[in-house]
Write a structure and sequence with these properties.
The complex is a heterodimer of chains A (114) and B (112). By secondary structure, chain A is an all-beta fold. Chain A is built from no helices and 11 strands. In chain B, strands 2, 5, 6, 10, 11 and 12 form a 6-stranded mixed β-sheet that branches. In chain B, strands 3-9-8-7 form a 4-stranded antiparallel β-sheet, with no helix packed on it. Classes of the chains: A mainly beta (114), B mainly beta (112). At the A-B interface, strand 4, strand 5, strand 9 and strand 10 of A face strand 6 and strand 11 of B.
Amino acid sequence: NAGVTQTPKFRVLKTGQSMTLLCAQDMNHEYMYWYRQDPGMGLRLIHYSVGEGTTAKGEVPDGYNVSRLKKQNFLLGLESAAPSQTSVYFCASTSRLAGAYEQYFGPGTRLTVT
Amino acid sequence: AQSVAQPEDQVNVAEGNPLTVKCTYSVSGNPYLFWYVQYPNRGLQFLLKYITGDNLVKGSYGFEAEFNKSQTSFHLKKPSALVSDSALYFCAVRGAYEKLTFGTGTRLTIIP
């Protein structure tokens, strides 16, 4: 099993450009999450999904959109990138089965917006 | 709103000495608490969790954590530090739909 994978690993954007980050998991998990990590701020939840076709806002959703068309994939979109979105983005997933709890994280995408 | 606090940005420990990384929490109801570790240029890895039961929880790589309800703390501990334990450590609390609220992280450096 590959676990959680993220594409791309690195990206540099100019202000105003758009891009999509792809997260894929092969563990048949129902729940998926997008976080951003910034120095001194820990990880903050951007959006999450509790199942195929459903998404919800997290703590810092502004400037981002998401889609979960397939159970195994969770896409994060930036429609008009801003320098404040320079960050490392992590995708995670977990099962909704009772007692699961642990989230599995991808390796991250380092995004720089100039 | 629930939250966790990690009061130390940086902890330095000599190799072979015991280590403690501190975490305090604020939640309504019973807390579900976690520790994750992040090595350079990697994603987060699960170390251990407290759900209920014994206040001393054992996890991966020889780490353990002590849950203290009266002090609302969940400190991470290891009896003898290794250089390979040097990493960034995050405490987290579980919310609805298994969402995690993370602390700001503590960078642990083990000095040979």
